[in-house]
Design goal:
Quinone Oxidoreductase, Chain A, domain 1; 15 strands; homodimer; 6-stranded parallel β-sheet; alpha/beta; 7-stranded mixed β-sheet
Chain lengths: ~350, ~350
């Protein structure tokens, strides 16, 4: 029996949001499994804002995806066949398996996930990149102290929601910025944020609303968005405040040069530290993150939700959900059925 | 005998560069010296870029100078009369004595300077705000390591010149950015910079020229200028680079909102730390700075030059020299003769 592996390859570099035709849908016969190889059936593909940056032809922390190349992406899958001594059929594994149905590999970059009572989605929704990003971004870059005020933009996103909840665990006042009343309700009613600001409703009042929600100013600002929200946040930072630059989602689809914050001079007058990071910089500390997050989750202090798009064929356009405000929870594509 | 104290008071808030008429020249009779008071005759007034910011009516790390108020400024003077037990006639003192000929004070904020074999100008040119700013900015905020590359903008200014020389003392490759061939020659021939870039001649080639002068990229960028120079520098930073934001002199006279760096997204992809500071945050560590700088000066590893404008009456327009490129060396106003 010959398996056909369907996959998405980059066809042209998107301008603005991803359009049909930017990726090519291909189906290729898988060769026979060699000695020392394993075959992974992808189940969940993680869709993350940073992926939009991988499509741009410029030097960055990882090389851009090349035209004709398989689209890069983090995935969780199940080992379906194995000639590899360290992997058995049924193992749940994670890695940069890409936008395809199957991966045949010698095991390089394939990480076996420990057995867990949580649903399979938790691997991407609670741990994975979202967990790494929120945990190390807040803890290591933000240096939060109990009693301080934490402001989070993109707060209803997978990372922002975890960051805010962790802020509460660590004893901070937590204020989220999100788009729409539903998302704001979710933050305060479900996730325990102290306050939430709907930036769409706030308009030019955003700065005033942040000030009102943060009567003691902002000590740690966790930035997922950029643009006008960053400007407003900079203007209310406390002296010696920390700005954790996780994402600048407002500008990932920009087709023209985007100016930096107009309030940049606040960096001096308030002695701010603005620091960027990449979750994988902390790759050797995954266990620490998983241990803490699992503990907090078990204690009911962390919730997560997932937004699952069905079918690999829908992956390219699903990426746009991260940028048009429609995404609610950790976005992923379900490529194939869950293991029995 | 009644002494008349001439002084500059802020009359209107300058728009752009300072214009004649923005300050008012006043002469007021000094009251008799009370018990516990001392009288300081100002000799050197320090002119610093940050002073332009003090004239703007907005919250900052110090309150703005109010209309009608004496212009704030650091000065070095000599005690001319004293009814104060801790100060004697002839003592050399430093403090925020303002733009006036004399200060009568109960001693609050008046610091006695130790005897020194250096000329009096060294107090502002080598130590004072220039020393504090360059020493703690580079050492504490920049965290330089031997073998790294240090890029300095405004490199021929009083702070930039000291920063670059300290970079050499600490074993870094040092590249300066300055305006004009003369200043660049001064950096490489007199101060030992490894390379200097004339941003005026470079124009849109600035980024290429920085890349050529910094073949291993930039690890520490000491920012005095902002604007296009900051953008060019951000684009050549190494991963985990540090941007020390000391000044943004290109925008202090701006009359419209100035966009932040267009390359702001580099903060994430290169995991940069952008950090602002104020020299006086390190006010309790002056002795450490003076000890190191005096040692390096005595060893011939630090040079400074001063740009002395004669006469308090010229102070307001002299401030513009910091922004029009004409200033060479630590800018100060000589208010009265040196002590005999």
């Amino acid at each position: 029996m010959t398996l056909i592996n369907h996959a998405w390859r980059l066809k042209t570099r998107p301008v603005g949001l991803v359009k049909p035709g930017d990726f090519e849908w291909v189906g290729e016969a898988l060769p026979a499994l060699q000695d020392g190889q394993l075959r992974v059936r992808n189940i969940h593909l993680s869709l993350d804002p940073a992926m939009r940056g991988w499509l741009i032809d410029r030097p960055s922390y990882v090389p851009p995806v090349q035209i004709g190349e398989l689209m890069r992406g983090l995935a969780v899958g199940v080992v379906e066949a194995s000639n590899h001594p360290k992997f058995a059929v049924g193992d749940i594994v994670q890695g940069m398996f890409g936008w395809q149905e199957y991966l045949q590999s010698d095991g390089t970059g394939v990480t076996k996930l420990p057995a867990s009572p949580l649903p399979l989605e938790a691997n991407l929704g609670l741990f994975g990149l979202a967990g790494m990003t929120s945990y190390f971004g807040l803890k290591e870059v933000g240096q939060p102290k109990a009693g301080e005020t934490l402001l989070v933009s993109g707060a209803a996103g997978s990372v922002g929601a975890l960051v805010g909840q962790m802020g509460k665990v660590l004893g901070l006042r937590v204020v989220g910025i999100a788009g729409g009343a539903d998302k704001c309700d979710y933050l305060t009613r479900e996730l325990g944020f102290d306050a939430a600001i709907d930036y769409k409703a706030a308009g030019s009042d955003l700065r005033k609303q942040i000030k009102a929600a943060c009567p003691n100013g902002v000590d740690v600002y966790f930035e997922n968005v950029g643009g006008e929200i960053l400007d407003a946040a900079l203007s209310v930072m406390n002296t010696f405040g920390r700005v954790v630059v996780c994402g600048l989602i407002s500008q990932y689809n920009a087709t023209e040069a985007v100016p930096g914050p107009y309030n940049f001079a606040m960096v001096i007058s308030k002695r701010l530290k603005i620091q960027g990071f990449i979750a994988t910089d902390y790759g050797n500390r995954v266990k620490e993150m998983v241990a803490d997050m699992a503990t907090w989750y078990a204690a009911g202090q962390l919730k997560y939700r997932v937004d699952v798009v069905q079918g690999l064929e829908n992956a390219p356009l699903a990426l746009n959900k991260l940028f048009d405000g429609s995404n609610q929870g950790k976005l992923m594509v379900q490529v194939s059925p869950l293991p029995a």
